[in-house]
Amino acid sequence: MARGKSRRPDRIGAHEAMTAKMHLAELNFGTLRYDWDDPRIAPFQSVLGKVGAIAQRCPGFIWQMDEDEMDAAQRDPAGPFGAKPRTASTLSVWADAQSLWFFVERSVHGRYLRRAGEWFEPEDRGNLVLWWVPEGHRPGLAEGMARFRQLRSRGPSEDAFDFDWLRQTGKLPAPTR
Q1: For a designed S-S bond to 160, which of 1, 81, 148, 150 qualifies (C-beta 3.0 to 4.6 A apart)?
Q2: In what order do the strands lie in the sheet with 127-134?
Q3: Distance of alpha carbon 163 from alpha carbon 174, whole angstroms
Q4: Of the candidates 146, 101, 167, which has an alpha carbon nearest to the alpha carbon of residue 10?
């Protein structure tokens, strides 16, 4: 990189991408059917700490946005979620696609993921976007939402994708179920 010039981490060039170690960022979110203090959400709330702790112990886990910061963003009228206090979301970084996929599908997270219909609005659950970030980069919610909107408006590409795209491009094996 030329001296005096700065480059935003999310605008990494093709040459830099080939030589830099890249990690996988993920943002997922959905709207709960009921308020956080509703007893019907209690089973979901009771597993959040357990699932988060498992994620942090999984091989390939690198970083996750702090729960308080995520909560503040969910309540902020000017924030990326537009003051939707029933939003549940996660933003994290993983060493590679296989590590994240293992956590999502093969850990206890997968068991609770299959119960999403009990807790989340059917039309607003399972919102997921994945994208590559340079090693050491910690994305913010604005970056994640921009990637999500890009995925929704243009479809999957190298810049914003989902697990299906990773499988189709050979970067993740087909499910074994």
Answers
A1: 150
A2: 61-64, 87-94, 22-31, 127-134
A3: 10
A4: 146
pTM for the model stands at 0.85
Both tokens assigned to 80? 């990326």
**The tokens of 95 are what?**
């060493």
Q: How many CB atoms lie within 10 A of CB 149?
A: 13
Q: Are 72 and 89 in contact (CB under 8 A)?
A: no
Phi, psi torsion values for 49, nearest 5 degrees: -60, -40
Are 23 and 130 a contacting pair, CB within 8 Å?
no
CA-to-CA distance for 167 and 97, rounded, in angstroms?
A: 10
Terminal C-alpha separation, the chain:
45
Whether residue 10 contacts residue 143, with contact meaning beta carbons closer than 8 Å, is answered with yes
Residue 26, Cβ neighbours under 10 Å: how many?
23
What distance in Å separates the CA atoms of residue 2 and residue 8, rounded to the nearest whole number? Answer: 13
71-116: pLDDT as tens digits: 888 888 888 888 788 999 999 999 999 999 999 998 889 888 899 9
